[in-house]
Write a structure and sequence with these properties.
Arginase, Chain A; Ureohydrolase_dom_sf; about 300 residues; hydrolase; Histone deacetylase; alpha/beta; His_deacetylse_dom_sf; hydrolase activity
């Protein structure tokens, strides 16, 4: 069964100017159920992540600031929104949902988190609407529990996974791969195991040729026993922040390449959804729902 982490807190209302991107967290489950792809049994609500698991990835001093809501003005500004206890709880539940998804992926081949993809959070900073790095936390959890010994993180959000890269810069058991807009945020990039920075305006053919080449190559090179996939849809031509020019169909083909390659090698995959900022919410929801539908077709 396809298992999907979702909690109403994922759609936590933010101050004016931040609310629109949160709408997708409510609409994606509704759309998937409306289309008959899933039903209520596919969804689970994660608990709060334990502090000791947070500290496998994030520095204690940073975590204490988050927990006690005392980031400095500059630190809070870097995150992109006002810090609150509900936002910290949200991030804890998202990260636990990603960990839970790993266990479901071992059982069923693939599992999803409706939210997640908080890849701009580093070991001691929050940034770009990311406070805790859910996939990095889950990867360190798998390593700590000896549930995986070689991990590949495939980050296909339009923005570089700078926090993920920094967290694992000295961890040979985790290979970080990021395909992103070279001139896009974050403007100070970290070094992933493999970065492919794209110029503005890259379209379907060029993008898909990279994915078709690199995904099988990396699976053979890294030989991962677990894959994390960040499936951002801010690569769409309609995205107001993305600067690339992909169609929905190409975004769907991208997902299919990743899922089929992992399925053929029997490598479990946890998927977090990442970014999407098209002005029409329907474009965001459609593209995200395609990711679920492709996974369902490949695995079930």
């Amino acid at each position: 069964m396809l298992k999907i982490a979702f909690d109403p807190i994922y759609a936590h209302p933010l101050p004016e100017g931040h609310r629109f991107p949160m709408l997708k967290y409510e609409l994606i489950p509704m759309q998937l159920k409306h289309e008959g792809v899933v039903n209520d049994a596919n969804f689970f609500s994660p608990a709060m992540l334990a502090e000791e698991i947070v500290l496998l990835t994030h520095e204690q001093a940073y975590w204490e600031k988050l927990k006690n809501l005392n980031l400095s003005y500059q630190e809070e500004k870097r995150t992109g929104f006002p810090l609150s206890a509900q936002l910290v709880e949200r991030e804890l539940r998202i990260a636990q949902g990603t960990i839970d998804g790993c266990h479901y992926a071992f059982e069923h081949g693939v599992a999803f988190n409706i939210a997640g993809g908080t890849h701009h959070a580093g070991s001691n900073w929050g940034e770009g609407f990311c406070l805790l790095n859910d996939q990095a936390i889950a990867a360190n959890y798998l390593l700590n529990k000896n549930l995986a010994s070689s991990i590949l993180i495939i980050d296909l959000d339009v923005h570089q996974g700078n926090g993920t890269a920094q967290i694992f810069e000295n961890e040979p058991r985790v290979f970080t791969f990021s395909v992103h807009g070279e001139k896009n945020f974050p403007f100070r990039k970290e070094q992933s195991s493999l970065d492919i920075g794209l110029p503005d305006g890259v379209g379907d053919n060029e993008y898909l040729s990279i994915i078709k080449e690199k995904i099988p190559y990396l699976l053979d090179l890294v030989k991962p026993d677990f894959v994390f996939y960040l499936a951002g849809v801010d690569v769409l031509a309609t995205d107001k922040l993305g600067k690339l020019a992909l169609s929905k169909e190409a975004c769907k083909q991208r997902d299919q390449i990743v899922f089929e390659a992992c399925f053929q090698k029997d490598i479990p995959v946890q998927v977090s959804m990442g970014g999407g900022y098209s002005p029409d919410i329907k474009d965001i929801v459609d593209a995200h729902c395609n990711t679920f539908k492709v996974a369902y077709e490949v695995y079930f």
